[in-house]
Amino acid sequence: MDVERCVGSGMCVLTAGEVFDQRPGDGKVVVLTPEPPADVWDCVREAVDRCPVAAIAVSTDRRPPHRGRENPGRRGEESFTSDEVCGKPTLPATPNI
Predict the structure, then answer these.
(1) CATH code of the domain covering residue 21
(2) E strands within the chain?
(3) Contact yes or no for 8/26 (Cβ under 8 A)
(4) 63 is a domain residue
(5) Phi and psi of 59, rounded to 5°?
(6) Checking phi first, is residue 25 left (phi over 0); if not, alpha (psi -120 to 50) or beta?
(7) Basic and acidic residues bias: where (predicted)?
(8) 3-class secondary-structure state, position 14
(9) C-alpha distances in angstroms, 29 versus 11, 13, 15, 42, 57?
(10) pLDDT at site 65
(11) Can you give the residue range of the structural domain that contains 16?
(12) Nearest one of 57, 80, 76, 83 to 68, comparing CA atoms
């Protein structure tokens, strides 16, 4: 994690809030769970992929094998949509009025 690079967008918190949080004041990333359980790794991978400035990285020697749907991300790793893996609700593209 590169706190200096972090711009406080909050995508990591929205995607994997059980692992990441933001500091009060500047909104920089804070790791709540340095060794997350296997059942949230897909969300952690998604958070890494969604970081707009690539401030988060995971160690490949400590993460469990990929179990979700494969979809190449910008760094050549698997990525997922948070609604597929992390159980987040999906908002409609246009509001129903």
Answers:
(1) 3.30.70
(2) 20-22, 29-31
(3) yes
(4) yes
(5) -80, 125
(6) left
(7) 60-78
(8) helix
(9) 10, 8, 13, 18, 12
(10) 53
(11) 11-85
(12) 80
Give the Cβ contact number of residue 3 at 10 Å: 12
Let me know if residue 97 belongs to a domain: no
Cα dihedral angle (62, 64, 70, 74), rounded to 10 degrees? -10
How many domains does the chain divide into?
1
pLDDT of residue 44: 94
Q: What tens-digit pLDDT sequence spans the chain (97 residues)?
A: 899 999 999 999 999 999 999 999 999 999 999 999 999 999 999 999 999 999 998 876 555 555 544 443 444 444 334 444 465 544 444 445 5
**Residue with the two structure tokens 């059942």:** 39
- Size (the chain), residues: 97
Residue 6 amino acid letter: C
Which residue shows structure tokens 């790791």? 31
Query: Which pair of structure tokens corresponds to residue 52?
Result: 């707009």
Query: What angle (nearest 5°) sits at the alpha carbon of residue 41, between those of residues 14 and 39?
Result: 100
Assigned domain for 22 exists: yes
